Amino acid sequence: MSSDAARRRRLARERERRRLVRLHAYERDALGRGFRLIGGIDEVGRGPLAGPVVAACVVADGPLMLPGLDDSKKVSAERRESLALDIRARVVAWAVGEASVAEIERHNIYWASILAMERALAALAAQPTFLLTDAVRIRSFGGEQLPVIKGDAKCATVAAASILAKVHRDRLLVELDRLHPQYGFAEHKGYATARHIAALAEHGPCEHHRSQFLRVRDPLGLFDCLES
Known about the structure:
This protein is of the alpha/beta class.
């Protein structure tokens, strides 16, 4: 390796280290205030047309200086799988919770996502003494919590939770794809891609679709045209 290439690698590692330090600002503040078990919680799957909403919670007692750790939306699928292994090995506790399609339709997507987060918290082997969330307040949590807007991009523990939730939910949608290959769930994970919309128009929804979502009831937007 040339000296220039080695220098660029060192600079890249240092930039990543500094980014990870910044990503821990909220966790450092909580630790500095005397909290020892810092939780981060997040959900994935509010936007898709099919499948459950999934939440994950992690509990850490120190920094998660894992190269590449970030909001799950910014991390490739392959890297998420690798990071998920590292996160599970590094944290004090972690857990996943789900809310089903039936619960999404009973409560609405917002409250179903809160339900999934409550289930993730309840499943933890060790409860956090301080909880960071992605801009939501979980009323059933008895400890101190801090909702952070775009928390999955600003808090290391919330980013870690978003990765665990995303990996779990993606695997669920791959399983649904085996049951219903006509929709392409493994490819789009339930989101409203052109292929998914076309499949809905051709085959209609299955039991795993969120029937109250407009694009499920009216995939081609015919209702929109009639209303305009």
